[in-house]
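Researcher: Please predict.
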Amino acid sequence: MNVLVWSALIALMVPLQSVLLPQVKIAGVTPDVALVAACLAGLLGGELHGLVVGLTLGWVMSLFSAMDPVVAMGVKGAVGYAAGFAGRHVVYLSWPMLTVGIFFLSCSAGSATAFLLALNGRQDLWWAIRAVVLPQGVLDALIGGALYWVAWSRFNVERWMTEYRM
């Protein structure tokens, strides 16, 4: 059953990220919902779930974009694992703390991607961080925090996290 839920999440993430979200640009930045999903999968499922979902989402999303598959898998897998590690070792993770965590994870993933890209003379690393990485980090953090807040206020997330983790 758990494999079906994660497979459905991954299958729904591809059309959402590649078809629907490019139409919803805020300040010229598209949110990275796959990164947020890997983070929430790690948080709710543990390190292993976060790593596997992050690697799979990175690979599947790189098929539909111009991103290098190794970089996409590494970044999203690392984000899922880090969120799973934080979720397992932090006693009480509130939604504001998760929002700050997703912001830092998204900014570090975006900075790594911007560092690995060969930017031209007009677009240096600081331009990429200021114009793309920080707005995308804020947008990803708001989306992830809102999703966790909805789950936290409607369901008993702490009980679910302690009972159903691997």
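Model: The chain has one domain: 31-158.
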